[in-house]
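hey so i finally got around to running both of the ones u sent me last week. sorry it took forever, my laptop kept dying halfway thru and i had to restart like 3 times lol. anyway pasting them below in the order u listed, first the sequence line then the structure token line for each. didnt double check formatting much so if smth looks off just lmk and ill redo it

first one:
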Amino acid sequence: MSFPPVIDVHWANFAPEIALLITAAITTLFALFQRDGRSSAWLALVGAVVAGALNVNLFVLHRTSGPGSSFGLRFLADTPGLAFNFVILLGTALAVLISYDYLKRSGLDQPEYYPLILYSATGAMIMAGAGDLITLLLGLEIMSLPVYVLSAWRQGARQSEEAGMKYFLLGAFGSAILVYGAALTYGATGSFVYADIVAALSASGFSAPLLATLGGALVLSGLAFKAAIAPFHQWAPDVYTGAPTSVTTFMSVVVKTAAFAALIRIAATVYPNMEPWLMTTLAVLVGLTLVVGNLAALLQTGVKRMLAYSAVAHAGYLGLAVLAGPAGLRAVVWYVAAYTLMNVGAFAVLMQVSDSNDRGDDLERFAGLGRRRPALAFAMTLFMLSLGGIPPLAGFMGKILVFQAAIASGYVALAVVGILTSVVALVYYFRVITYMYFREPEYEPPQNRSSMAAFAIGVAALGTVLLGLFPGWWYGLMNTSQQFLAKM
């Protein structure tokens, strides 16, 4: 009598995700008895810190003993996945901090808000460690479903409800495409596991390269939706604008990080073994994203919508590193960390000058901010300069890394497009700075003040400066990422 092979189940490799999931469950139960959302916020922060500590432990362990895995390479606890977890947890903690007073002020303070944030972050971390297409899909849905609800959190507001419905419908469509792509890939290779797919594609006499590549293209389309890569970006400006700003902040950093964590792992291991036209298609999409994102942002008068198109543009910059495969992995990890800090900071400042219903995010809200609230204006200046790629801030080093990765991999033309569009981006970033210091306000905007948001802005500003001045410490932690990824 034969028995099925024993699958390695190493629960320790799931420790950060389990800690976050348990915290989300406890916070959900707590919400039944305590209607004060602020108490749930503190629980959420504790959970993020505990998950971060467990992630540090795994990071140290696997840097010395080699990458870990569970369920037969279906979940990977390697340097790249754990590094992306750091960024996801950082983005989650900052999103909780900026939500603390904002939700109360806006009349949106419900205790279910924070458990949904934690559930979504758990799904994002599963995506970052996914080693097969089924795990990827599970993580994607766990991450997405709470965000669909959060996008429509402002009940009775047509714009918010429209954002939630649009994100849900288009998100379901994107997930369906990814499922179909996974099915075609399985039909061609006989496996969902990335390592087994690579082995099948590399085997002599492989008979279904076109079917496998078509499946890979559909998987790329599904991930491109979550990453807001053109032309799959149409949802982003409307959903980012309609959702509460705290939710937009979370989506713009955590969802994007998870999407690129999954995309770089597949693009670096699976796609090079498929038909060459797949990577060519990805290159075209990246170029289109750079152009569309920056030119559309140039035309916006609302800062929130401008930041939404800016997020699309930054997906293009991240795409340059994705095209480089394993050589671009450290650039992706570094860039999403920098992007999380400067984007959370920018949205947090926006929340301080907008009214309780998120109306009035136009540039006039920033007029005279340098005189009225100099510290807030200074922080916004740092974030705008960093997003624009001005040295010595984090955004500058991030763009240097992605351009270097693209050029080293032969995508010189795309790197040139990225550099040129970065110059265009300076126009709309400097426009915000101009309003803060050289325009007088036509009316007195609200003076929202929050100690928790101020702390988050301070952390984001400090991180943006330090990451730009001392880029080597975070980049150096990734010195084995390429090796681990290649051996997956």
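and the second one:
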Amino acid sequence: MRRRGFTLVEALATIGLIGVLLALLAPALESARESARLAACGSNVRQLQLAAMLPARDHDDRYPPGAMDFHANLHRWHGTRERTGEAFDPARSPLAGYLDGGAASSIVRCCPSFAPVAEELTARGAGFEAGAGGYGYNNAFVGVVRAPDGRGGWLVLSDETGSRASRFASPSRTVGFTDAALLTDRLIEYSFAEPRVWPEHPEHAPDPSTHFRHAGAASVAWLDGRVSVERMSETAEGWFSEGSSGEAGLGWVGTASDNRLYDYE
């Protein structure tokens, strides 16, 4: 008796069926992978916010500065450098000693969904803020000390330290850290979660920097340590971008057109 094998037509049909099944499964597999990356990202921003809360307990209730001596541009919340043009060293971040891993804490604060962008920028010698890991700090209010200017705006009194935790009336609804990026001619890393309007000039908006990179969602750590997954509510075209901020996934959380999710009030 002769054993009957597959014909060419049957083999091609089987291969085609496998291809169809893989195509059907691919979106579900990618969705599962992104869900895992979102969970890791939420853990990262929680650790960052908790790390920012610990220095406040040690330094007169004050949060760490976001960009101390801003014009010199050598110190940021995620690292320090000796001269402009160099990348910030995350081992010299004011938060490093409060993060799991200490000097190796750059691993802790790396969003897995943003890692390919950060790695490409670093390979080109342009990843100056790669140590921020794809996250932005509410420097506009948390990372500086402000006072009302009497005209509806807020003046910076000092960037040598952050604001006192006690100044924030609603920590559970005040942004601490978010997924962040900035759009120029391409998407780049950015270490600040910009508010809805400029504190000094409430009639103008900064470039949106909260990055909704997780299938249209962003991880947000609030000042009380709570973490939530938020969807974009608003966007606007930026001053520096050469493309669409909305299409790049950049915008703001919340429905308010003011800074109530960022400021002291």
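quick thing i noticed on the 2nd:
The two ends are 88 Å apart (CA to CA).
anyway thats it, ttyl
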